Amino acid sequence: MSKPLSRRVFLSHTGAVAIGAAWTPPLPAQSTRPADRPFGAGERVGVGLIGCGRRGWQLLDLLLRQDDVDIPVVCDVDSERVALAAQRVEQAGRRKPEATVDFLKVLDRSDVHAVVVATPDHWHAVQHIYACAAGKDIYVESPVGHNVIEGAAMVQATRKYFRVVQVGMQHRSAAWFGDAVQQVRAGKLGKIAETRTWNFVKAKPVPPSDDGQPPASLDYDKWVGPASMRPYNRGRGHGLFYNWWEYGGGLLTRCNVHYQDLIHWAMRVNGPASVTAVGGNQGLGDFRETPDTMEAVFEYDTQLLPRPGRFMHVYSLRLSNGHAVWAPPVPAHNSSFDAASSMHTGALFHGEDATLLVDELGLAVFPTALRQDKPIDTRPTDNTGPPFDVLTMAHIQDFVNCVRTRGEPRAPIEAGHYAAAACHLANIAYRTGHRVYCKLAMQACFTDSTLQAVDTQATEMLRRAAYREPYGPPRV
User: Fold this and answer.
1) CA-CA distance, 132 to 85, in Å (whole number)?
2) Average pLDDT taken over every residue of the chain
3) Around 308, how many Cα atoms within 13 Å sit in the side-chain half-sphere?
4) Which CATH superfamily is domain 174-211+225-387 in?
5) Residues 218, 222, 227, 231: what is their CA dihedral angle, to the nearest 10 degrees?
6) Which of 56, 94, 281, 352 allows an S-S link to 190, with CB 3.0 to 4.6 Å?
């Protein structure tokens, strides 16, 4: 349920976040509508779509099912994609929206009250912060920020401008994920020593491709945006950007960020005490830069559960084989991905009294081996859980409702930042080969648990080394 966004909540959030990077001045607020006035009963919410790729198209279709939402403008740096998105709105019986390649034109419009940011990861922070300064509410796809410092800046901008922000972590709108959280928090599993999340898939290798000329429809300079300019290569472009460090963080930030948030939510933690990660591109040996195989081990301290203490979280990534063989068994397929790829993903909470499994299909509780109780499994036996868009629709409805009422959405910006930051830290540990100790509020990494010796190499990777003008960085 949505909560009012009080000044006390605002102050408690902003007190924990500081920005250490230099950022250029923000845009002035452009909206002519009073920023914090709730909508009237018959007033429609104007939503601008920024990013018309696969995920943007999915979100657009769901927005078109909302009777109280108008879509006056759509935006993408690919003119073909944005034209198709505008056509899709018109085909749904709505007024054809403006189509633009410049997201600033979306923010200039007084009939846009909120924006959906569904662009590649390296654009999220810039567009989010400019939208906050322009007085717009935001539905931003995960991960929050390309790096840790960007995520912190997004938090600060959200609270500075009193914006309603929903992070696209739609599992927070699924009742059974909430049930899993409540069981963990109530101590029903006993003391939890270990949690686990994973992404396993039998993926097709990304074939090597040569640098070349971008498609005529693509404004490649705007696509690269704040990242370093490199020659165009279709193997780094649409749909594959997250496999490259300049633009994303691989499957760890693309997929695991959702379940990392679940671990944080259930165990009542914000960030790990340390992270270690190993792996490589050794299963597929393909064109990607990020690993196709990885094991990351996080150490957390939780003091807010009935049985507080330290626990270990393990994340596993494997793209060359989709099978998970540990007990309890996971479903053969996951409904959020193509079933033919045999995607396995989920979370396990290993307590002294029971193990809880939760995934896109539901949850199951398995007593320990010393007990003979019958397992409690609420997942459907036919492996056909709720359609993925059902969860996202509920998440979008929550966002639109919060825009109307000025409430706080189910997946607030802080939750998205903390989940993404943990995944970024694991990537840093992998890339440096170091065990990384970190306290997010200090915006530094360390070589020891006492946080006395700064790990310079890891600390530098908390932020992007340089931003290309004029695309960033913005200032909070």
Assistant:
1) 24
2) 87
3) 6
4) Dihydrodipicolinate Reductase; domain 2 (3.30.360.10)
5) 40
6) 352
